[in-house]
Amino acid sequence: MTDFSADKVIWTSRVHDSFGPVVELSDEQGQISYYTIEKEFDVAGNSYAVLISENRSEVQGPEIFRILTSLEGTLELVTIDDDDEWENVSELYDELTFPE
Fold it and tell me: What is the dihedral of CA 49, 53, 57, 58, to 10 degrees?
């Protein structure tokens, strides 16, 4: 079982350092959206970025992406397709953001 514990989190800033505080992402249709980088962290052997869309509604929360690094060092933000991984990272982010 993968350990998504708050005490295992390592805060990072690779995406921010590479692109600045706002990133531009495009979807499958080529639609461009801008996101502010809220947090970045490593946990359970993976890296994640929490982004907030500049077009988000009041009820829409942040979006979480996995950060991949190519052999050349290029960063890529990808959607987390595994439901269990997404749930674990989402719950961890909530725990880190709203501690009891």
Answer: 50
